[in-house]
Amino acid sequence: MKYTLLIYHGTSATPDEADAWAALPPEEQEAVARDYQALNQTPGVTPGSPMADPQTATTVRVQDGRTLTTDGPFAELKEAIGGYLFFEADDLDAAIALAATIPAASMGGAIEVRPIVEW
Question: N or C: which end of the chain has fewer CB within 10 A?
């Protein structure tokens, strides 16, 4: 089964957020970097590309045949999606176990595990 793991950073510090990242002790920064590197080397994992901040998003809707755009994300979120990855696993339990190793899950964020529908 293939899964998409959506990484909600929440309050977790990431290298993209310089102030929050700098507030982490160097050994914790190294541990987070090491954990993400190990995650990306896990068999069955296909890393996604990092995403820019939600404020850079453009939301697109089509209404009455007209394309409407809005600056920013579709919804107000406390935990914006900061990244994603794909994981091919035997079952949901394996995907959940992998999600639990993602640093954001233990640093104030959350990981959404969603099966991929294959057409």
Answer: C
